[in-house]
Amino acid sequence: MVTEHTAAPTRMRAVVQTRYGDAGDLHLDHVDVPEIAENEVLVRVHAAGLDRGTWHLMTGKPYLMRIAGMGFKGPKDRVPGRDLAGTVEAIGSEVTKFAIGDEVYGIGRGTFAEHAAALEAKVAHKPTRLSFEQAAVVPISAGTALQALTDQGHLEAGQSVLVIGASGGVGSYAVQIAKALGAEVTGVARAEKLDLVRSLGADHVIDYTHADFADGNSRYDLILDIAGNPGLSRLRRALAPTGTVVLVGGEHGGNLTGGMGRSLRALLLTPFIRQRFAMYVAKERASDLERLAGFLEAGSVVPSLGHTFPLDRVPEAMSLLDSGQVRGKVAITTI
């Protein structure tokens, strides 16, 4: 039941996918504006964020995702996209935190569209100093970085942190958040992206094509491996004797389990060593968005917005992401 609403249209433009595949399987269409439940808000989407998880949902790989309920033969949700920033147009009868016209950011469903539904528990008021495009690329990536550093990594001020994949979506936030929490940060990336990593505040940078972070010269209290694939023994060589590795992702390992195989091996190893491996599973919650808003309003964390594409160029944006050429984050605009 919706208790408040504006004269929202019943149809909208949206990017649609009917089968698993590549960027060529995404196309612009007109679909119904989603209905919202009692605990949801309807958001007029100004911008949406593109992240690696959306790419996985497009390809349907690893196949374990399909078994987990994402749709076996094709995507359960025809409209892709999770991150959003926009204006509240309608609220469910149980919603208490938001009113019509509020500017919000967070995680919804089917956000590559002009309207999207989102649970009240997964959105927060948009930081005032951010544009909609900047806010849209925060929720999933920055939330992942925050949780990996604090919930899983138990980061403390003064510790040394190694971020593998420091120039990407999650990594660009991990560098900044770790610095804001008082850590000494080393970022690993390709040579052409090291300037970005330095600009994010990293104390040290490593070009992984010419140097080895596990050469024994430095040991780190906490390592965030973001979509990297170094072996567990190599990670251990770079880790302090009682340090922690948080495995945030992995882009190889086969079509069935992807990077999950390495994570499972790490968990089996952990009980027998002093060092600790943690496998990270993201939680989507407004409390993290509200905590991030403090960093964002203070300017200690700034979204690294690399590219912006309109709704009709989502396939091009997805191809760019797949190529590995993205620096920071990509936003999709709908207005």
UniProtKB/TrEMBL annotation:
Residues 21-332 form the Enoyl reductase (ER) domain. GO terms for molecular function: oxidoreductase activity; zinc ion binding. InterPro entries: ADH-like_N, ER, GroES-like_sf, NAD(P)-bd_dom_sf, Quin_OxRdtase/zeta-crystal_CS, YIM1/Zinc_Alcohol_DH_Fams. Pfam families: ADH_N, ADH_zinc_N_2. This is NADPH:quinone reductase-like Zn-dependent oxidoreductase. The lineage of its organism: Bacteria, Bacillati, Actinomycetota, Actinomycetes, Propionibacteriales.
